[in-house]
Amino acid sequence: MLRIPDFTKRSEAAELMDDYSIGGHELTEALAQLRRINLLLGAAFPLLEGVMYWWRQAGQPSCLTILDVGAGSGDLNHLLLRWATLRRVHLRITLLDIHPDTCAVAAAYYHDEPRIQVQQGDVFTLPPQCADIVTASLFTHHFPDPQLPAVVAALTRAARVGVVINDLERHPVAWASIWLLTRLFSRNRMICHDAPLSVRRGFRRPDFERLRAYPGLTRLHYRWRPLFRYLVTLPGSAGVSV
């Protein structure tokens, strides 16, 4: 019998994806299945909305750099690449991930895309103002509440124009849906464990209200987006200019 968890607070259980000793075929398979889930659930659309917002705020420049932190395969950036082609924006995207095997998967996935480079690194060691826009999709929910202010502050310092966070809403319908979906279509241990847990580690409005009460994060703005997602934006450390 399916037991409904407590959604009043974020889960503190650890995701297998955060165990960096897990790699190889299991991780590669999990990332491939995650790409299909992201496509099915429209995970890239809040990201595009946020990037377009900061691009317009910056005066619609013809050149734009994006740093995608905790990028995984970086698959959500396909939509940004198509948008840039249509808008004739010279776009350069750096995919950053802490796991070397994940970086290898991303590099192979984008091997024929010159606008994308892959770099191994950590959110807490990002250079200041190293990209126009810093994005973090399905990344911040990996951190416990006490670490979130430092994570968001690090993203803000690294961005010249603005930050875009695209993450999950903690909701029982979202949890039950992904629980069923993964058990119907996946046998990968990481996917079956992490996908429902990611929803339990996701966010609700009070979480963002607490977060923007911290010094330096008072300009954080959040809004709900389908399906069960939040789009969060913050100005970068250099103001709106490219």
Question: How does this structure look, described?
Answer:
With 242 residues, this protein is α/β, with parallel strands linked by helices. The chain has one domain (16-235): Rossmann fold (3-Layer(aba) Sandwich), CATH 3.40.50. 40% of the residues lie in helices and 20% in strands. It is built from eight helices and seven strands. Helix 2 (44-57) crosses helix 3 (77-87). It is globular and about 50 Å long. It starts with 23 loop residues before the first helix and ends in a 7-residue tail after the last strand. The mean pLDDT is 97.
The structural class is: alpha/beta
The CATH architecture designation is: 3-Layer(aba) Sandwich
Mean pLDDT: 97
CATH first level = Alpha Beta
Please state the overall shape, judged from the principal axes of the Cα atoms.
Answer: globular
- Numbering strands along the chain, what is their spatial order in the largest sheet? 3-2-1-4-5-7-6
Over the alpha carbons, how many angstroms does the gyration radius reach? 17 Å
Q: What's the number of helices?
A: 8
Topology-level CATH name: Rossmann fold
Strand percentage: 15-25%
Q: Separation of termini?
A: 54 Å
Helix and strand run? HHEHEHEEHEHHHEE
Q: Approximately how much helix is present in the residues? A: 25-40%
Q: What is the total number of structural domains?
A: 1
Oligomer: single chain
